[in-house]
Structures are given as structure tokens and as C-alpha cells.
Write a structure and sequence with these properties.
Elements: H1 2-7, H2 9-21, E1 40-48, E2 52-57, E3 63-67, E4 72-76, E5 82-87, E6 90-97, E7 103-109, E8 113-119, E9 125-130, E10 137-144, E11 147-152, E12 157-162, E13 167-173, E14 189-195, E15 198-203, E16 208-213, E17 224-228, E18 235-237, E19 243-246, E20 253-256, E21 262-266, E22 275-280, E23 289-294, E24 308-315
Antiparallel strand pairs: 1-24, 2-3, 3-4, 4-5, 6-7, 7-8, 8-9, 10-11, 11-12, 12-13, 14-15, 15-16, 16-17, 18-19, 19-20, 20-21, 22-23, 23-24
């Protein structure tokens, strides 16, 4: 029963967070930050109460989107045509492409058992591995070669998965990766991405962005605080080291400079209600486009109610950080 509740962690965790604050009473974390809205283009829209949780772009430029609650993965072409790629048996969270072109997907088998799925771009399930000891597998990113890092939002740890050996191990545990208390149902360590020799990590529960230096062997150094007092879910980097983050219940997308300055680049009027994840385009002409997915404000609805979930593109003007092919 405990694992079933935890497997719904994204849903119940954010509901708990919102209910504890009271409807429409979020702290004004971004009220004093400058706003520089960028051009936006809608790619797709889903019915209200669809929880789009993650997004990844393949080397050919197709955009892949994960729907958390029904375990579905969708693919969108440059023209916005949608194709149903896969339906996994359970709930899903993070997406990342391997250099071989497969998708690694974090989630819960049958909505209960923490699991890492491997799916090819045709939607066939190649392999799955039970994440023994994990609680809430969430964001996933490439560390180097065949090694991937997975945020565990309730364990307060980052796992390492080695594709070549099909093995899982704890890469880092630290108090800054953990929740404020064991009773908190808000995700702690959440998004994670590498930039240079540093892993950046968001902790949504503690409203922190962290920096973890990478050692020569790929192990973790001692974490430090990069930005405090800002709630970030998933994020991505451009080539200049600017971080672009989805703020989820704060209904916006923000840019964080290498010096830690925060600027709001999209708000609810641009479609960012319930923004959950971002990813840069990867084709020539699209590499300055930031793709964003949302859940339409399921956990803190606007005054007019929950809106349709969206996939949209922001033109940020700077190319995204190149990913391995």
C-alpha cells in the first residue's frame, strides 16, 4: 500500500503542497524578478487534467512527450502532427534519449513498483529494471558514456544507472537532496542536468538549485547552493550556461543566468500554466527553440479553472546545449 501511495507521488505530493498553502495563496517567489517575455508558438493541446510530465527531443528533431498518469508517450513532428508511440504499464515521469536512440523512462510499474523502462523510438519495450530501494524516481539525465543519473524525490538521493552493466547504485545522498521533513509530500530532488563539469539539481520542496562538482571518475563532489528561494521542476541549459526552468504551480518559465539572476520569460498567458518540463530543439533552425509541457494547472487552478495541457515552443534566441547522439 505504501508503494502505491508513493507511486502517485507527483499527484498527491503537489496536491498536498497546494492544499497546505491554500488555493491561490502561493508565496510570491517570482514577483520581484524582471519579466522579458519571448515569442511563443503552440505545438499541441491536450484535454484539461492531462498531466504532461516530461519532454525530450530526438536527433532528428521530433519532440517526445510523456503523459504521467496513463503511461503514454507521444511524438510530435515539426509540423505538430501527433503520433502515439507507446503505452507503458504504469505511471511515468522522466524521459531521456540514449546515444543509441532509445528512450529511458522513469516511473512505476502498474503504478506501484519503482521501475526504469527502456523503449525504442518505435515504442517497443526493450527492457525494464525494478529499482530496488527507490521510492520516487523522477528526473533522469546522461552523466557520461553509458551512465545516467536519476533523481529520487522522496529518498533524497540520486541513483546511477549503467546501461552497459544494467546496474543501479546510489550516486549521491545529501541533506540538500531531501525533503524538509519525512512527512512532506512535495518532491525534493527533482530535475537534474549536467553543464560542463557540474551537475545542477533542483529541490522543489526546499526551493533550491544546487551545484554538484563532478570528479574525474564521474563521482560526486560536495554540493553547494546555486540559487535559493526559487521553485524549479525540470530545466535545460543553453550554450552560454543559462538555465531555463519550468516552475510548475508558479505557472511560468524562467531563465537563470550563470550568476544566478532570475528572469521570467513566459507566464500563464503564454501557455505556461502548470509548466512541468522543458527541452531544446536539436535541428538546425530549431536549436534556439525551448519546448515546454504543462498540466494546465491541475494542482493550483487559475480562477477560471484548470486549462488544457499544452506543448509549446519558446524562441529564446540562444542555442540549447548540444546533447550526445
Amino acid at each position: 500500500m505504501k508503494k502505491q501511495i508513493i507511486g502517485m507521488g507527483i499527484l498527491w505530493g503537489m496536491l498536498f503542497f497546494v492544499s497546505s498553502l491554500g488555493a491561490q495563496s502561493l508565496p510570491p517567489l517570482y514577483a520581484n524578478d524582471p519579466v522579458e517575455l519571448v515569442p511563443v508558438r503552440q505545438v499541441a493541446q491536450f484535454p484539461a487534467y492531462t498531466f504532461l510530465e516530461s519532454v525530450a527531443v530526438d536527433p532528428e528533431g521530433a519532440v517526445y512527450v510523456a503523459s504521467h498518469e496513463d503511461g503514454k508517450i507521444y511524438r510530435f513532428s515539426e509540423t505538430g502532427e501527433r503520433q502515439d508511440v507507446a503505452t507503458l504499464s504504469g505511471k511515468i515521469a522522466g524521459l531521456v534519449f540514449t546515444p543509441q536512440g532509445d528512450l529511458l523512462v522513469t516511473g512505476w510499474l502498474d503504478g506501484k513498483v519503482p521501475t526504469l523502462f527502456q523503449v525504442n523510438r518505435s515504442g517497443e519495450l526493450i527492457h525494464s529494471i525494478t529499482m530496488e530501494g527507490a521510492i520516487f524516481p523522477n528526473g533522469i539525465t546522461l552523466l557520461e558514456n553509458n551512465r545516467y543519473l536519476i533523481a529520487d524525490s522522496f529518498l533524497g538521493a540520486i541513483w546511477q544507472f549503467d546501461v552497459s552493466t544494467n546496474s543501479l547504485s546510489i550516486w549521491l545522498e545529501h541533506e540538500w537532496l531531501a525533503r524538509r521533513s519525512p512527512e512532506s509530500q512535495t518532491p525534493a530532488v527533482n530535475g537534474l542536468k549536467r553543464f560542463g563539469n557540474t551537475l545542477y539539481v533542483s529541490n522543489s520542496d526546499k526551493a533550491m538549485l544546487l551545484k554538484v562538482p563532478l570528479q574525474d571518475d564521474g563521482s560526486a563532489g560536495i554540493p553547494s547552493v546555486f540559487v535559493q528561494g526559487k521553485v524549479i521542476d525540470d530545466f535545460a541549459f543553453d550554450t552560454n550556461g543559462n538555465l531555463y526552468g519550468a516552475t510548475h504551480v508558479f505557472n511560468s518559465v524562467v531563465r537563470v543566468s550563470p550568476e544566478g539572476k532570475v528572469t521570467v520569460i513566459a507566464e500563464a498567458d503564454q501557455g505556461a500554466t502548470g509548466s512541468t518540463a522543458v527541452a531544446f530543439g536539436r535541428q538546425a533552425g530549431d536549436e534556439t527553440g525551448l519546448y515546454v509541457v504543462t498540466n494546465g494547472g491541475m494542482f493550483l487552478p487559475p480562477a477560471t479553472g484548470v486549462v488544457p495541457a499544452e506543448v509549446f515552443r519558446l524562441e529564446v534566441g540562444t542555442p540549447g546545449l548540444s546533447l550526445p547522439d
